[in-house]
Amino acid sequence: MKTTMLLALVAALGLAAPGSHAQAKKDTLTLGMTLEPPGLDPTTGAAAAIGEITHYNLYECLTRINDKGGVDPGLAKSWSISEDQKAYTFKLVEGAKFHNGEPFSSATVKFAFERAKGEKSTNKRKAIFANMEAIETPDPSTVIIKLKATNPNLLFNLGENTAALVEPKSADTNATQPVGTGPFKFSAWQKGQSVTLVKAETYREPAAIKLSRITFRFINDPSAMSAALLAGDIDAVPQGGTDNIDQFKKDKRFTVTEGLTEGETILGINNKRKPFDDVRVRRAISHAINRQEIIDGAMNGVGVPIGSHFSPNNPDYVDLTGVYPHSVSKAKALLAEAGVAPGTEWTLVLPPPTYARRGGEVIAAQLAKVGIKAKLENVEWAQWLDVVYKNKNYDLSIVSHVEPLDMVIYENPSYYFQYDNADFRSLMQQSRAALDPKERSRLTKLAQAKLTEDAVNGYLFMLPRVSYYKKGLTGIWQNAPIFVNDLTRVHWQ
């Protein structure tokens, strides 16, 4: 009787019964993000913020890139490659379902990849899918991809968010009502505020997922982001700024990690707009740039300088930072030779991230020293995508290109910096065709050097990954070989 009365009293007071946990383990997570994506379909939109929310959380791919940059099985549990490296046979996992209940099968893969290479496709990696000569489905659990030309990076490419596997019935509305096979499904999008995902009951490994709800909050002001973390309004900032790094390192409530990304931060140059169509002008810009000043001013000294569009993490990397040493006199001489008069005004379009806004101020001061007046134009992310990326209506801009192995973008003359060079395209094509890894490496290094020789853009630094999160949270990636917040194994201890 006494035991019964004790339990009743405990229940009435809302207390924990003897021997029970005083508080259930936390199973929700709120993350802070600088940029809000324009949509939630990575196969049609270019913004990296799409993948930060959806990649591996909501959508899955045939392969899965891990935090070390390696390739693991995804919706394909195994694969084999033909001797000529032009045919890939994938064996698919069993029991995978989309959030709308539709089954995943080889037919899904065929639909998704044919959509990605179709005439109406806006996939930013469309060339990878256009290289697929045939996509065969001999049975529901087997896919055979036959290539027109070899692609040594195909397995990696098929783990990127642009290769997300989408379902035919929901594909056209994924930008606002995304449907995937991942461990979390779409719940809500409060424009200007947040996106919420919840655990998907359709996921084939439910016991492996420890979080029941994830909220991505959009806070584009660095001070407000830090304040939200300090106040407990958010639990983590996986890709944070460097302003308050020392403060958070000293605060025992938080863990701070410094890792690497694949984000080449560049001063983008419109190569088809005068006077930037003259290589002397572009080389003058490269001489005017002082990378360390930019890293110090924009990133509190955290960042690795680069001299071409290639990651120092890659074994084929060549350090080309010394090709255009910082020299005001050389920059002035080249500008004079190209007929650019002192006092000329150029526009410098800057999206919201701190590295761009602050980096733009530093670069404007550096250009002023060589006689150029840089007019700073701060724009929101959607404006940048429209004005710079889509319509190419700009002189200069600053942005981090976070897709790995993305030197291929320079093969596209219609890409926003409008570089059109047959010799570069030939080097890239030869590199992909080379079956010998040593020859492929040699050609990749020559391609890097070609971009630097032509001073296509001003190459600044690799974007670091500085993560801040509450103690007790585990599973956050330290490095980001792809721009992703993979929360599949994240949990509270």
Number of discrete domains: 3
Number of strands: 19
Strand percentage, roughly? 15-25%
Runs in which pLDDT lies below 50 for 5 or more consecutive residues are 1-22
User: Span from first to last CA?
Assistant: 37 Å
CATH architecture of the largest domain: Roll
CATH class of the largest domain: Alpha Beta
Instruction: Write down the overall mean pLDDT.
Output: 93
Number of helices: 14
- CATH superfamily of the largest domain, by name, is Dipeptide-binding Protein, Domain 3
Shape: globular
CATH fold assignment of the largest domain: Dipeptide-binding Protein, domain 3
**Main sheet properties:** 7 strands, mixed
Structural class: alpha+beta
Regarding quaternary structure, how should these chains be classified?
A: single chain
The percent of residues in helical segments reads 25-40%
Rg over alpha carbons:
25 Å
Secondary structure elements and pairings:
Elements: H1 2-13, E1 28-33, H2 48-54, E2 63-65, E3 71-73, E4 76-81, E5 87-92, H3 106-116, H4 126-130, E6 132-139, E7 142-147, H5 154-157, E8 184-190, E9 194-199, E10 213-218, H6 222-231, E11 236-240, H7 245-250, E12 254-269, H8 279-288, H9 291-299, E13 304-305, H10 328-337, E14 344-350, H11 354-368, E15 372-378, H12 381-390, E16 396-401, H13 422-433, H14 437-453, E17 458-470, E18 473-474, E19 491-492
Helix pairs in contact: 8-10, 9-11, 13-14
What distinguishing features does this structure have?
single chain, 493 residues, alpha+beta, Dipeptide-binding Protein, domain 1, D-Maltodextrin-Binding Protein, domain 2, Dipeptide-binding Protein, domain 3, 3 domains, seven-stranded mixed β-sheet, four-stranded mixed β-sheet, 19 strands, 28% helix, disordered N terminus
